[in-house]
Amino acid sequence: MKTAIIYKSYHRMNTEKVAKAMAEAVGATMVKVEDARIDDLSAYDLIGFGSGIYAGRPHRSLFTLVEKIDSMKKKAFIFSTSGKPKEEYHRLLREQLKAKGCQIVGEFQCQGQSGLLGFTFANRGHPDEKDLQDARAFIKGLVSG
Ligand SMILES: Cc1cc2nc3c(=O)[nH]c(=O)nc-3n(C[C@H](O)[C@H](O)[C@H](O)COP(=O)(O)O)c2cc1C
């Protein structure tokens, strides 16, 4: 299954680590959201959208990209790193992707260390090797299933 992983990561590059682990596990193409071109997406069977969580949601650049898509009847997954993972963080992006015709086949979240007081203590060192292993297992499950 030809897979692309589009992501935004800027705070501590936590999400980029997860994106890289996933991409290497299944030979997927990693694309920074700034470099993503809608026309190129048609070449893929499965598209992942990943981001750090900033003020309760993925980065706005992912929403801006998805807004530009007319319709995309493809399999998609969402992943994120955050101080304190919550299912709610994916809701808006999930709804937006579904509205474009995507079938959400999975979601993955793990902790990402932040420089923000309050989030810093619980998530120091994340994503750690266990998080990255979980990320690899997650995407292998999607690609083989
Ligand atoms: C401006 C800002 C806002 C954040 N807001 C949240 C939040 O609402 N909830 C949360 O759990 N973590 C929050 N965090 C922590 C980040 O989600 C976490 O550090 C994430 O791993 C950053 O991803 P990145 O290194 O890929 O950019 C925030 C971090 C920043 C810098």
β-sheet strand percentage: 25-35%
* Biggest beta-sheet profile: 6 strands, mixed
The CATH class is: Alpha Beta
Bound molecules: flavin mononucleotide
Output the helix-strand order: EHEEEHEHEH
How would the global form be characterised? globular
Tell me the CATH architecture.
3-Layer(aba) Sandwich
What is the arithmetic mean of pLDDT?
96
Tell how many strands the DSSP assignment holds. Answer: 6
Query: Treating each run of at least 4 consecutive H or I residues as one helix, how many helices?
Result: 4
Class per helix and strand makeup: alpha/beta
Q: What is the assigned CATH homologous superfamily?
A: Flavodoxin domain
First-last Cα distance: 10 Å
Q: Return residue spans where pLDDT drops below 50 for at least 5 consecutive residues.
A: none
The helix fraction, in percent, is: 25-40%
CA gyration radius, whole angstroms: 14 Å
